[in-house]
Design a protein that fits this description.
- The chain has two domains: about 5-110, translation initiation factor eif-2b, domain 1 (Four Helix Bundle (Hemerythrin (Met), subunit A)); about 115-285, Translation initiation factor eif-2b, domain 2 (Rossmann fold, 3-Layer(aba) Sandwich), CATH 3.40.50.
- Helices cover about 45% and strands about 15% of the residues.
- It has ten helices and 13 strands.
- The protein has helices at about 5-15, 20-35, 45-60, 65-85, 90-115, 135-145, 165-175, 185-190, 215-225, 275-280; strands at about 125-130, 150-155, 160, 160-165, 180, 195-200, 205, 210-215, 230-235, 240, 255-260, 265-270, 270-275.
- The strands form three sheets. It has a seven-stranded mixed beta sheet with strand order 5-2-1-6-9-12-13, with helices on both faces. A four-stranded mixed beta sheet has the order 10-7-8-11, with helices on both faces.
- Strand 12 and strand 13 (about 270-275) form a beta hairpin.
- Helix 1 packs antiparallel against helix 2 and helix 2 (about 20-35) runs antiparallel to helix 5.
- The relative contact order is 0.12.
């Protein structure tokens, strides 16, 4: 593996600024770039190198399942394409086409998600959230643009020198959305004011939990005790039917494992899935139109 590619993969491993959706797009662009014949003409060993890069991306951020799902999907499709191709140029061309299609699928899901999830947001509600989520921000922005009036309480979500709640608040305030920052140690004082809780997700494990930035567990525990509805908003690519997270017993520092039985529903680009729904979900369902049942 070339040094520049190794560095790009390592940048994803070390990145603590961007969320899973952004980093998934970055990972797919690494695969697209190495399959770009204009920039990197194929040489002997090209197919093996591409598979090595894809599999390195599968494991680069274990807690961000969308990266693993898309990188593995690319590897599986690329192996089939390479086996039926008779020239390096054709293998590279087909790899470029696979990466391009997966990028379009991923970005299309990101665009569609807010339009499907925004109906959760009702007029004159107070929403409490934790950590930073592009999906939640986009959903709230979509609801605001469609005339829904609501307020947000963003948990500070301080990890080292970064307040992810502050990042959320800054973005929402720029969109004209009322947002107040709540200190991490004051969750119990403020949660009673909320009508609902929204969480993003870096992963939805089929072992019965979702992964999100701290202090998501504390927020959901307190909210559930007060009978406040809790939803997660994320793309289907965050689901883990292949079991990448099956061996995880403790989350990465700065993240929480939240029991799915505390979550009313998971809002995706294909509708709202319950905990029971996702256990019938397959790896192929991520990449095709599997819609949730009506709830």
């Amino acid at each position: 593996m070339k040094a520049d590619i190794r560095k790009s993969i390592n940048d994803i491993r070390k990145d603590r600024e961007h969320g899973a959706s952004w980093l998934t797009t970055r990972a797919l662009h690494i695969l697209l770039d190495v399959c770009d014949a204009n920039a990197r003409p194929a040489s002997p060993g090209f197919a093996d190198e591409i598979i090595e890069i894809a599999m390195a991306l599968v494991t680069v951020r274990p807690g961000m399942v969308s990266i693993s799902n898309y990188a593995l999907r690319f590897a599986e499709e690329f192996k089939i394409a390479a086996a039926s191709s008779h020239s390096l140029a054709n293998i590279q061309k087909r790899g470029f086409a696979i990466a391009s299609r997966l990028i379009q699928l991923h970005e299309g899901s990101i665009r569609l998600l807010p339009t499907r999830a925004a109906h959760l947001i009702k007029n004159r509600t107070i929403i409490m959230t934790c950590s930073y989520s592009d999906s939640i921000c986009a959903t709230l922005e979509h609801a605001k643009a469609n005339g829904t009036d609501f307020k947000v309480l963003a948990i500070q979500s301080q990890f080292r020198k970064v307040s992810y709640g502050q990042l959320m608040a800054d973005r929402l305030l720029k969109a004209g959305i009322s947002c107040r920052l709540v200190p991490d140690d004051k969750i119990c004082w403020h949660v009673a004011r909320a009508d609902m809780v929204l969480l993003g997700a870096d992963a939805i494990s089929f072992q019965g939990w979702l992964l999100n930035g701290s202090p998501s567990y504390e927020l959901t525990r307190v909210a559930a005790n007060k009978k406040i509805s809790i939803y997660s908003i994320c793309c289907k690519s965050k689901f883990d039917p292949r079991g990448f997270l099956a061996s995880m017993r403790e989350p990465e520092e700065g993240f929480d494992m939240v029991p799915l039985n505390l979550i009313v529903g998971i809002a995706t680009e294909s509708g709202i899935f319950t905990e029971d729904d996702i256990y019938n979900f397959t790896f192929d369902d991520i990449f095709r139109s599997k819609h949730a049942r009506s709830h």
